[in-house]
Each structure stands twice: as structure tokens, then as C-alpha cells.
Sequence to fold (667 residues):
Amino acid sequence: MNIDINFLGILIGAIMASSVPLILAASGELITERSGVLNLGVEGMMIIGAISGFALMVITDNLFLAIIGSMLSGLLLSFIFGFLTQSLLTNHVATGLALTIFGIGLSAMIGKDFVGIPGKQFPLLFVNLKEAIPFFGPIFFGHSIVFYFAFLLPFGTNYFLKKTKIGLIVRAVGDSPLSAANQGINVLLVRYCCILYGGAMCGLGGAYLSLIYTPQWIENMTAGRGWIALALVVFATWSPLKVLVGAIIFGGITILQLHMQAMGIRIPVQFLSALPYIMTIVVLVIISRDSRKIKLNTPTSLGQIFYKEK
Amino acid sequence: MIKIERRDETSNLIYFLTPVLAIFLTLVTGAIIFYLLGFKPLEALKFFFITPISDLYGLSELLVKATPLCLIAIGLSFCFKSNNWNIGAEGQLTFGGIVGGGVALLFYNHEGFYVLPLIILAGAIGGMIFAMIPAILKIYFNTNEILVSLMLVYISKLLLDYLVVGPWSNPEGFNFPETRQFSESARLPILFEGLRIHAGIFIALFSVFLAWVVLFKTYLGFQIKVSGLSLKTAKYAGFKGKTMILLVFMVSGACAGLAGVGEITGPIGQLHRMISPEYGFTAIIVAFLGRLNPIGIVFASLIVALTYLGAETAQIFLQVPKYTGQVFQGMILFFLLASDFLLFFRIKFLGLKKYEY
Fold:
């Protein structure tokens, strides 16, 4: 059988590109959850990142500002979450849900004047190498800077959590906030930082969609990716490198599904589109079946309200 | 100096007043957002919250929208009270609508008194079965019910899309993504000529009554409450935790399924892609705003239904997207959760003198 090796390379490159927003959002959320905070507002922060990035691009015509702005807007939204859950001790699940509902609504409100405006070509790196090298070219070259950042991020996150002192502090706060506090660690400060970092990464993930992946603004364009990112963190059992693997699998399903549609395979489009969601459930079942393993890896204080009598 | 102290006991008055405070703060913040977007804030709020219910038609529309919200929220209160996070009511609503709609389509050229009860039953069972998926996976495989129930929302919507475009689409419908119109006996009766308010409201009110009885007057209700307050206590008391999880999910799925058939046999009259403007998600807010209390939920559903209507009116008069309603819904929940702080803590303003010993 004669498989076009270059086409295969393009396919793999496309799969990697489609996994970028998932990697970014899931890596951010992973740090947040490692500090013991469950933020279900990922979808809301991503969509706000998407619209603010796009809006800033249109207004300022500066892609750098747009990227920074999208991260700041995700951060700002996560600050609401942080203030409520950490300072006002609200329930993490309910607050996160409110954040998502609020974010989707606000993004549509801001974005009403930006519907239908064409996006701008984001500068791609190493384009000449992409053409020059067969197979590996389209996989590794000709992508945006955010792409490369996303693929380095899980390694950085892994190093941060396992090898640095601050990483150790984050894990300590997540596993036993009370002992951490008794050691003189400012639990609130650590958690706030982790929440804000998570928000910024989600914002960046959203901006990748509206600025690079499909450069335009469409209402509700994140289409559940935030929720899949949340599932990915569980899938990865809170380990950054597995986030990378999981995101590529999900990106693969998304791209494969598009190609199957294009090839006219006689399966209804909707069933193919449902594949990522069905896969999420299947994977969750496989991962969670071993409750001992889940318990071992879950940050012990995840989602619990921490309050220390002063 | 400000000092924060844990309250020894929470006051009942504050418990039911904080939702009012939350609504007030939402209106103020809403006015600020409208101002920032370049609208006259008071005028915008008037279009949002007063214009829509200033005539009989508007009031009827308010009840039409409050009905599904109230039904779903009643079901969700069973889940949330027992610490089960069913976030996928929207999917259970959709699946209930699909099953109920399927039965309605079977009878599309039949008339008879039995048609409507059959459809309603089918819808409730459909929603119930769909809600059992996350419950069973949680019980036997320890999966996270939040994520599973949420993924099922997307799956059910795609299934509905497939059905109305494909096998169930109206053969005389020029390929529009919709089914045949249901027969007359498959429709919930309209209460007043010329208005859309339908008999579904009685289903909702009956479920409120039933929920009140179960939650406050039965042993089961007691078990649900205890499991929510402390899982350890529930275990120690010998409550069957797994049965409870399944049960609360079944109740809330059935309620969402009922809301789904209520929509398709009530105002809609057929199946198409958009049988619910995210009622399933909004009902989560209704459940919290109503303090997971059946009576509270009735009031909360009216208030949140108003944000839907308001968004529609504001869309016409102010050209804001209809998603604006969601901004208000999200804010209500934010402020409600935030004001809960006052429930458990008191803020003391201490004079500086006290520190001068």
C-alpha cells in the first residue's frame, strides 16, 4: 500500500495543533488542582480569553498585545473565583460553574461587534523547514510560537512540581493545607497564585483558538474544550506529562473525525463529533476504576474549603 | 480594625435574606456593565426586568419559562442536598425530549386520551435512564459524576441533531432539521386562549409539593439531608450510600426528562435542534438561589426566568446578544455564594482603642 508519507506528517502536525488549547488549559488547571483547588470555570476562562484576544487583535492590530491581554483576562476571571473560594470560602463546584456560565455570557456580550470580522494570519516559525523536510517538516515546523510553548509547558510543569522548592510547597498545600500552614506557609497566597496561573493558561488556550487555530470569533467557539481539559487532568492522574499524551489522543480523535467526515465514511457526522465526548467517559471509567490509584494521586484537599482560625 | 469570626449558629432570617441581597447586588453590577457597554443603565435594566412582564402575555411567558426551570431545579435539589453533583440536567432534558418525542411521533396520526400520558411517562423514563449513567459509573467505577454527566450533555445534543436531520426528519419538511408536528392529543393543553402558558405548570407545581413531602416528611428525605451534611455520619447510621446515589440521580433525571417533554409537547409541538435554551444549566442556579428548598425554588425559578425574558426583550430593544441573560445568571450565583459568607461568619468592626490595652 502506498501511503503518502508527507500527508501523514501533515496529519500528525494537525493533530498536535488541535491539542494545543487542551494542553495549555489542562496544564494550568493541573497546577490549580495540585494546590487543592478545583476550578470548574475552565470553559468560561477559555472563552473569555478567546474573545479578549480576538478583540484586542482587531482594536490594536498587535498580536503580542492580544496574547498578553487574553492571558490577563483569564487571570482576571480566575481572580473572581479565587476571591470567592479562598477569601469568602464558597463552594468550589458551584463557584466554578457560575464562572463558566458568566464567562460564556460575557464573551458573547463583548463579542457581538466582532462576529464576522476576519482574523489575521498569525506569524508561523520555520516555514521554510516545513516544506524542505518530508514527513518531519510538517510535524515539527511551521507552527506558531504558542504551539511550541504549549509542547514545552508540560515538561516545565513537571520539573516545577518535582524539582523546585516552590513546586514542593504547591504540592504540600494541596495535600495538607493545615500542616503547610503550620510550617509557616501562606496557604492563601500559594492557592491564589496557582488559581491565577491556571486562569492565565486557560485564557491563552482560548486565544489560541480565536487567533491561531481558527482565526475568527464565533459565539461559544470553545465548544466544551474546557470541560475536556478538566477531564484530561483526571485522565493524567494529575501528572503533567500524561496531560501531553492525553491531549494528543483527544486532538487525534478530533482531527480523525474531521478526516473521516471529509472522506465520506458512511457514519453520521454527529456520531463522529460525539467521539471525543464518548472517549472522555470511557477513559474516565478506565482511569477511575482503580480507586486506590486515584486516591494515591489526587491532591488530598482537592475541592475542600480551607479555613484556619486566626 | 476588622475581625472575622465564625458564627456559632446561622440565623434563619439571614439564610433567606441573602438571596435577596444577591439579586440586589446583581442589579447594581448589571447596571454598571450596561453603562460600560454604552447603554443608559436604568433604561437598560427597565427593558431587562420590567418591560417583559408589564402585560399579560409577558406574565404568561414568564411562567412558560419558569416551569422547566422549576422542575429541573427541584430534581437537582435532591442531588445537591446529598452532595451528588449532577451537572448534566441539560442532557437528561434532551434525552427525555428525544424519548418522549419518539413516542409522540409514533402517534403522529393518532388521537386519543392515552397519547399524552404515554409521552410524558416516556420522557420521564428517558431522563431517568440517562441520569443513571453517571450514577452507575460513579457507584461501580468511581468516576467523577460532574464530568460524565457533562459529556452526556454534548452526546445527547448530537443524538438529537442526528435524529431531526436524519431518520426522524419530517418527510414533507423540505429537509428542514425538524420532525413532524405532533398530533393534537400529544400536546399539553393551553390554559388561556391566545397565551402560551400550558398545563406543564401543574406538573411542576405537583413536583414541588411532592419534593416538599419527601424532603421534609419522610425518612428518605432525612437520609438525603444527612448524607449531604456528613458522609461519615450517613455511613455510620447505616444508610445505603450507593442506593441513595442512584436514587437522587433517578429523581433529578426524571424531573429533567419531564421538563424536556413539557417543552416539546407544550410550547414547541415537535422536535428540533433547540428544544432548550440551556434550561438544564440555568436550573443549577435556580436550585442554589432557592436554597435547595422546594418553595424557595419556585420563587427562584420566576426570578431566573425573568433573566431569559429580559435578555430577549433587551435583544430587541438594545441589540444586545441573548447571552446577556447568562451574565446576569452567573452574577446572581456569584453574589449568592459570596453573601453566604455572612451566614457562617460575622464581621466585627473593632475600634482601634481595643488594641491599646
In short: DSSP finds 14 helices and two strands in chain B. Chain B has one domain: 2-356.
